[in-house]
Design a protein that fits this description.
mainly alpha; 5 helices
C-alpha cells in the first residue's frame, strides 16, 4: 500500500472526520485494502477469516456485514448477484 493511503487510513481511524461520516470512513478503509482483500480471496481464504484478520490488525473497523457488502460491490459483483442473461449467470439449460 502506498504511503499516502496508509496516512489517510490512519487519519480516518484517529477520527479525522466528523462523527456522522462512519459510512464514508468504512468505504475509504475498504478501498485502501481492496487489493489485499482480493488477493486473499483469490488465494482461497474465507471471507470471515480475511475480515477477522483485517479487524485484528486494525486495517478495517467495519462490521462483517459491511465488509461483505463492499466485497460484493467492489470485488465480485457478478458472483453474488447474477441475473439471467448476464455474463456469469448460471445456465439452467431451459429456455
Amino acid at each position: 500500500m502506498s504511503d499516502i493511503l496508509e496516512k489517510i487510513a490512519q487519519w480516518v481511524k484517529e477520527g479525522g472526520n466528523s462523527p456522522d461520516s462512519t459510512k464514508r470512513d468504512a468505504r475509504a478503509e475498504f478501498i485502501a485494502v481492496q487489493a489485499d482483500v482480493k488477493a486473499a480471496i483469490d488465494a482461497g481464504y474465507a471471507y470471515r477469516t480475511i475480515w477477522e484478520h483485517m479487524r485484528e490488525t486494525k486495517r478495517l473497523s467495519c462490521r462483517y456485514e459491511t465488509f461483505l457488502r463492499y466485497v460484493r460491490k467492489f470485488i465480485q459483483p457478478m458472483r453474488f448477484s447474477p441475473k439471467l442473461g448476464q455474463k456469469g449467470a448460471p445456465e439452467t439449460g431451459r429456455r
